[in-house]
Amino acid sequence: MNTPPDRRTRGRTRAGRLAALDAWLLATERPLLEAPGEAPVVDVGFGAEPWTLLELATAVRSVNPSLAVVGVERDPGALRTAADPCAGAGVALREGGFDLNGLAPARLVRAMNVLRGYTGAEAEAAHALLGTGLAEGGLLVEGSASADGELCTAHLLRKVDGALRPEALWLATDFTRGFAPIQFRDWLPRDLRRSVKPGTAIHGFLGRWTAAWDATRAGLAPREAFRASAERLAASGEPLLRVENLLAAGQVAWRYAGG
User: Fold this and answer.
1) 174 and 153 Cβ atoms separated by less than 8 Å
2) Residue from 247, 228, 3, 6 nearest 114 by CA
3) Where do the structural domains in the chain lie, given as residue ranges?
4) pLDDT values of the chain reduced to their tens digit, one per residue, 259 residues
5) CA distance 143 to 107
6) Secondary structure (3-state) at 49
7) How far apart are CA 246 and CA 168, in angstroms?
């Protein structure tokens, strides 16, 4: 296995930045979160302040109060800052990186905004290493969000038969910037962001969504245009996963055909 470099990120984060992702996971991964056992939820690279880590813990414990939650960070300063609030919330902390520092196999690993400075090949190597820390059936969530969470995307990768398999690309907007499908391009996971070129699957998907948006958006507010274009896209046979209340909130997932 290739080993990704130990590259520090800026480590900035803000409260609420990943709230949309928390909502998606609660809606779509409830059986995984509710399953008995000691497999933890792990947040890798939670940043200079622990706000999104603590929000994740609150979210997942709303469906499983006994769930172990662990924050993993390379930066000793961030760990010191997080120590008191995380101790008060019953959230464990570990210094470490993509190898998860020897933690027990996790049911869910989240690694958001940590691979933006990596190459595509390095990001794939990081996925593979993170996947070794997942329990069978566990989920790796890796992607990027704008500073306040207005736009956010993430790979959803599942461990099946010992291997990490791409399941879907989750996309969310809060409509602060209006809406057009192309807005997601700059916030795609690192290995996809430079791949939005003719002939690639992600280019084709965004193109089909843009065509659906152009065909439906006349006279509609951004929120309505998002929903109408997603519904049109799904009706055309696009493999979109839609959750009713979250679709209205600006969230959808594109299932990867064949991985």
Assistant:
1) no
2) 6
3) 19-173, 181-252
4) 566 665 555 556 788 999 999 999 999 999 999 999 999 999 999 999 999 999 999 999 999 999 999 999 999 999 999 999 999 999 999 999 999 988 989 999 999 999 988 988 999 999 999 999 999 999 999 999 999 999 999 999 999 999 999 999 999 999 999 999 999 999 999 889 888 999 999 999 999 999 999 999 999 999 999 999 999 999 999 999 999 999 999 999 999 865 4
5) 18
6) coil
7) 16
DSSP state of 2: P
What is the rounded CA–CA span in Å between residue 154 and residue 87?
Answer: 28
* Fold of the CATH domain 19-173: Rossmann fold (3.40.50)
**CA geometry: angle at 47 spanning 17 and 247, to 5°?**
25
> How far apart (Å, rounded) are the C-alpha atoms in residues 168 and 153?
10
Residue with tokens 């070129």: 197
Burial profile 242-256: b = 16 or more Cβ within 10 angstroms, e = fewer: eeeebbebbbbbbeb
Question: In the structure encoding, which two tokens stand for residue 179, read together?
Answer: 């809406």
User: Which residues are within 8 A (CB) of 194 and not within 5 positions of it... i.e. 6 or more apart?
Assistant: 120
Query: Which one-letter amino acid corresponds to residue 210?
Result: T
Cα–Cα distance between 210 and 218 in angstroms, integer?
A: 13
Rounded Cα gap, residues 93 and 216, in angstroms: 47
pLDDT in tens, 36-65: 999 999 999 999 999 999 999 999 999 999
Query: What is the separation of C-alpha 24 from the centre of its chain, rounded to a whole number of angstroms?
Result: 9
